[in-house]
Amino acid sequence: MSLNIEKGSTSHSAYNLRPDWSETVERHTLAVVVENEPGVLARVIGLFSGRGYNIESLTVAEIDHEGHRSRITIVTSGTPQVIEQIKAQLGRIVVVHDVHDLTVEGASVERELALFKVKGTGDKRVEALRLADIFRASVVDSTLESFVFEVTGTPEKVDAFADLMRPLGLMEVARTGVAALSRGHG
Hints:
Layout: E1 26-35, H1 40-51, E2 55-64, E3 69-78, H2 80-91, E4 96-101, E5 108-119, H3 122-134, E6 138-142, E7 146-153, H4 155-165, E8 170-175, E9 179-182
Antiparallel strand pairs: 1-3, 1-4, 2-3, 5-7, 5-8, 5-9, 6-7
């Protein structure tokens, strides 16, 4: 038996249902509106851990007290096919009302809050304060030997501030995770 495949043709098999999808890993921000009841977060997290999907950032807060609804913002990475699987599986959980992929639905705003404890005296202390001013970081606690800075911004801004504080005596970091909303009327 001979198999004739023309140059440039795409193989179709049960494992390659969407051959046009890229194999590159992409970062996506998902907004999931759920019932605010015990065990919901565990079910959502269980979906990720049970299938080996990674969560880069996770924030949860009640958004409608009377309607008993919470919003879970998840930042995850995967191929386009994996992201589609995650969204489909999230949508099948009974207590999930809406799943929005903010990355593909249009422009969105992402912010994160972080606290940085930086130990330093002398020139390092002066340099830490100078950089904090450039990043519009607030000093929320100060001793003679350390500062706690508060930084709000994109995850990239938070990462950049951390990178600059490491050589100056960064001791500890606490991050809230990403909060995100779509822009405009959508």
